[in-house]
Write a structure and sequence with these properties.
The chain is α+β, with helices and mostly antiparallel strands. It has 6 helices and 19 strands.
């Protein structure tokens, strides 16, 4: 069931977005709803739904009225009531490797998507501005203190009122938030007590269930939006993943110390061939062309 998948943190971005949008609409339309439904409470509610109902939770991409009616019955069965449940439309924007896309949301906020990224959001926001992100995006959030803007990624929630910041959530093992302007609050979904507040030129990295703060020029982390590739003391293994996403290619790195070699460099509007030449020169490695889209980095 969708409810169980969400409770176990196994739901896809689209499935999570449907449920977040449902809770958002409940709070918008019900004059009786006084309970704040944070992520942890949502999971508890959905666990109750999974455990106490025998019916199947039906959902469709466009949220049919039948699905909405089914959810009403489930909510009533666990003690909640909403006057009117609408079936809000939502939009899923996706990019492929090597592609970037600029999106303007209904509130005027602007989101730039990097390659291999999925953003899910409602056509119109309710009392909360909730969006779901998989991949990397740069946000310029329209200020509205009455409607907080929350970005949901796999492990983190990033809450803002009006600011600009970058989120990188490509890796299942590591996520990073960097602030350019304003202030954001980053919290861990699995632990409500684990949260930090970031100011301009501050970053937080979530890895191994821990939040690690750092401070550096945030322009480095959003340089991709200006068509600049930045390697910030990163390993050749990490660099290979960046180049794969940027140029829509596949790069294998030899299984030895080569993948751990670190490099710092910046390239503006540069082609892949010249970047490879720089890597070979600076790190004394050889990059073989297997096919026009497949490459191998190895020791000389």
């Amino acid at each position: 069931m969708l409810a169980r998948k969400y409770a176990e943190n196994k739901a896809t971005a689209e499935e999570r977005a449907q449920l977040h949008l449902f809770f958002d609409m409940m709070q918008k339309t019900s004059s009786y709803m006084t309970v704040k439904t944070g992520d942890i409470k949502k999971r508890k509610i959905l666990n109750n739904i999974s455990n106490n109902t025998s019916g199947r939770l039906i959902y469709k991409k466009a949220w049919s009225y039948i699905a909405a009616a089914s959810i009403i019955l489930l909510i009533v069965s666990v003690g909640f009531f909403s006057e009117t449940i609408f079936s809000p439309g939502y939009i899923v924007q996706k990019t492929e490797s090597g592609e970037k896309k600029v999106i303007t949301l209904s509130d005027g906020s602007i989101v730039t998507l990097n390659g291999k990224t999925t953003l899910t959001y409602p056509e119109e926001f309710g009392t909360m501005r909730n969006v779901e992100l998989e991949g990397e995006a740069f946000f310029k959030v329209k200020r509205n203190p009455d409607k907080p803007f929350v970005v949901h990624t796999q492990d983190l929630e990033t809450k803002v009122l009006g600011t600009s910041f970058n989120i990188n959530s490509y890796s299942e093992e590591k996520a990073q938030v960097s602030v350019n302007t304003g202030r954001v609050e980053v919290s861990v979904k699995a632990d409500e007590t684990a949260k930090v507040v970031l100011h301009p030129d501050q970053q937080v990295t979530y890895k191994s269930h821990s939040l690690l703060m750092s401070k550096s020029n945030s322009d480095i982390y959003s340089a991709w939006t200006r068509n600049i590739i930045v390697f910030n003391n990163q390993s050749l293994e990490e660099i290979a993943r960046i180049l794969e996403n940027w140029f829509a290619v596949e790069i294998a790195v030899e299984q030895n110390d080569v993948r751990d070699l670190k490099m710092t460099a910046k390239f503006r509007d540069e082609n892949l061939e010249n970047i490879f030449k720089s890597i070979e020169h600076l790190k004394a490695v050889k990059i073989d062309t297997i096919t026009p889209k497949h490459f191998h980095i190895r020791a000389k």
